[in-house]
Design goal:
Elements lengths: L5 H12 L2 H24 L3 H20 L6 H23 L2 H28 L1
Helix pairs in contact: 2-3, 2-5, 3-4, 4-5
Protein name: Flagellar secretion chaperone FliS
InterPro entries: FliS, FliS_sf
Family: Belongs to the FliS family.
Length: 126
């Protein structure tokens, strides 16, 4: 796949060469980015863009949910958390509620940070 845009090519290469652990962090970063954009869109009364960005965040949460390996006990807890986040995003989209987006962003940031710490510990123990 050849892109004329060097940035798009760089992003594509970054994703294709990333470890599974890094891909998870990238998903969280993407969801956080879209939640922030949606918050800005709502503040600016740009409802169409807010809907688009919240939907993108929902897509990422759905992807995180699909990636769970349910053979681990922790996966059931994560499934509940992702389900909650998805529901909050639906609610925020319907109500155009910035406060709900703040909660979602905070939880996503905590999950990303926790995942990052876990990855560091795994690397140290390897």
């Amino acid at each position: 796949m050849i892109n004329s845009n060097a940035y798009e090519q760089y992003r594509y290469n970054s994703i294709m060469s990333a470890s599974p652990e890094r891909l998870m962090i990238m998903l969280f970063e993407g969801a956080i980015k879209f939640v922030k954009l949606a918050r800005k869109n709502i503040a600016e009364d740009d409802i169409a863009s807010a809907n688009y960005n919240i939907s993108r965040a929902q897509d990422i949460i759905a992807e995180l949910e699909c990636s769970l390996d349910m053979s681990y006990d922790l996966s059931e807890n994560l499934m509940e958390i992702y389900g909650f986040l998805y529901g909050q995003l639906v609610d925020a989209n319907v109500k155009k509620d910035i406060n709900t987006l703040d909660i979602v962003e905070s939880m996503l940031s905590e999950l990303k940070d926790t995942w990052g710490e876990a990855c560091l510990k795994l690397k140290k123990n390897a």
